[in-house]
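Last lecture ended with a question: if I hand you only a sequence, what can you say about the shape of the protein? Today we answer it with a concrete record. The protein is KaiC domain-containing protein. Below, first the input exactly as provided, then the predicted structure, then a couple of comments.
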Amino acid sequence: MPEPSAGDELVDSANASEPNETETGTDGSLFDEDFGTALENAERVSVDAEQDDDRPAGFSDVDFGFSGLEDTDFDDEPDSELPRTDLGIDGLDRMIQGGIPERSLLVAIGSAGTGKTTFGLQFLNHGLEQGENAVFIALEESRERVINTATERGFAFDEYVAEGRLAIVDLDPVEMATSLASIRNELPALVAEFDASRLVLDSVSLLEMMYDDRASRRNEIYDFTRSLKDAGVTSLLTSEAAEGNPYASRHGIVEYLTDAVFVLQYVRPDDFRETRLAIEIQKIRNANHSREKKPYELTSDGISVYQQGNLF
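The predicted structure:
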């Protein structure tokens, strides 16, 4: 009997009523665990109480590098009547007027250590809190590592997996190049079967690195992002920033294929005693948003954006 293809394996496991035994990937399977098992093992996210203040206790305007409180400055892009959704990052959500249009394709661009993965986890966490289903596709970390990272942030993803509301699937890098087409073709059907409304892919840079030819890279990434659009979910990609340019992705492609771009970067002015982190919304189609650069921190609870503060 012939071996099933990667696409057949995903469809069969998505429709399975009982979870399968964990696969190690040594038999040539695409994922360390099949899709059905991933659905059964997802984790729940816990919610931290909201703070009235936009800043953590013990931080003043001066010692966090704020220059004062100012009204948010929104751009003049036309608003729309599309259904909206929040990202789940409070200060950042308040920089967006009305929320992200549902089924948008988003990208968070940043260098190492700026919190791109945390951004994705927090985005899924918020949806799961609202009763949504979600999918996390890991290209650089194992499924176990994703769960552990979420747990460190207070997001109980293991409980959501157990409830069948979160799928965490990790692609085998060895299989990725040969199986990408199958994944791309099957993804809309899989998302429909799982009834997911949010999806994170961490990170698209690894997909881009598979292609040496720029034209092939552009065409393949275009087709892949189109499959995410066809899946009908609000999707977030993470991407490494280009060397020497924090406002561009590594290969300068994904920001042109997405509906919203968030830039996470280090700010190192000479007069600062320490490096700051700052976030900027480069674009959001069909939504008004602030054009200002705002400071943020990576805390034990995730990303905290200080929307009312300005960098010196």
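Comments.
1. Residues 173-194 form the longest helix (22 residues).
2. The two ends are 67 Å apart (CA to CA).
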